[in-house]
Amino acid sequence: MIQELSYVGLASPRSEDWRDYGPNLLGAMLVADGPGGAVRLAVDDVDYRIEIHRAEADEFRYAGWGMANETDLHAYVDLLAGRGVDVHQGDQTLCREREVAELAWFSDPWGLRHELSWGKSATPNSFQPGRVMRGGFVTGDQGLGHVVFQVPDLVEANRFYADTLGFRLSDRIINDHFNIRFYHVNGRHHSLALAETPGHIGFNHLMLEYRHMDDLGRAIDLLARNDTEIVQTLGRHTNDLMTSVYIGSPSGLQIELGYGGLVVDDLSWVARTYRKPSYWGHRYTGNAMTKARGIIRSIA
Ligand code: FE
pTM surpassing 0.90? Predict the structure, then answer.
């Protein structure tokens, strides 16, 4: 089974702006470019986990899911193939590019690309935060963070992500505005969430979690200097208990910067339904309401 969110890839006409935004605002480490001048960011001792390719338009390119080892990868690929998923083997060039030992990929029912891999390159004690930071990011056995996709049909999406892929439901938030399901693959409350937005598909946000509240506070202080907007004000979520702020990025994608997220025990976990997404805060700012929130496209 999938063990972690390992990496994510975007493409953007403003990929170069991430060279400043990544280290100076987020606190990530700018590392050597990928092929074609792609900007790469590390958030821990994995050599890179976030890649922004150059392109004409903002695009979600792929989410990389980490498997424990090659035995698990092979078994999982066989399982998915048996369930009718069209899984492709990644060639040597792709494995080298992603810095993994072995890779397979497939697309979800709306074309979002997911990659499965094991053996991603890492260098012990290599992570140096891009700006003053007290404690770095929560990763380790909780992976990179979480990704949230907008899907046109949550019933069909759940059938694919939960029933076919095996993402385990953490809970749901349902009210007049939201219909969202949250899924875990390790102790992190959710590595994936799916929000229903009929007629639309895309990448809403990437969440990165700081070890210390001070590093979240510093990010908020740095927003003005980096000319970055707050999309949702500081608040605390009901389900994963994350204290977080949602901010813009150079590429349409929102970044959720969090602190203090819940760790779940899968053996005893029971999925709940919540009405409110937040105990307090997480107010949309005036500006943010009028703009697209994420890398989203409409589908026929
Ligand atoms: Fe989130």
Answer: yes
